Amino acid sequence: MRHTGGILVLLVAVLAAGDAWGAKPSKRLSDEAKGRLLYERHCIQCHGPDTAGDGPATEALVVEVPDLTGQVVREERDQDAELVLDGHGGMPSFLNSFDLYDARRIMRHMYRLSHRSPEAADATEPEVPEAEEPNTDDARE
Question: Please, which residues bridge with residue 88 across strands?
Fold first, then answer.
């Protein structure tokens, strides 16, 4: 019987530790945050903050960077991700910098940037639709 009590204490300790481990925030970036980070690290110099092709490096380039405002299409993001990896025209290949999943994250970020409203263009964060919160004001009255 004494042995069973020790196992029970050990089991409770393991379960409590499991709850504590589960409560730790993840150190992994969300797909949205990773796409934004990769865009800022690899793309913004040429494509600019709003995909308009007006990044600071464009002055030194011999080829024109296209204005992609409103041009990134959801249905073509996978195809565009392949283009990012392989390179196109004056754009270098990023195959050695990241994989297809990261290229897709970048394309999702570029979609948000290229389709955000003009009044949101000055904001540092892209406009992302949020889920509606239930109205809790009525419940307090």
Answer: 91
| Structure tokens that stand for 36 in this block | 């934004």
Torsion sign, CA atoms 64, 90, 44, 131 = positive
Assess contact for 17 and 23: CB atoms under 8 A.
no
* Cα atoms in the Cβ-side hemisphere of radius 13 Å centred on 46: 13
Other beta carbons within 10 Å of 29: 13
**Domain map of the chain by residue range?**
31-119
Regarding the domain with residue range 31-119, which homologous superfamily does it belong to in the CATH classification? Cytochrome c-like domain (1.10.760.10)
Q: What's the pLDDT tens digit per position in 104-119?
A: 999 999 999 998 866 5
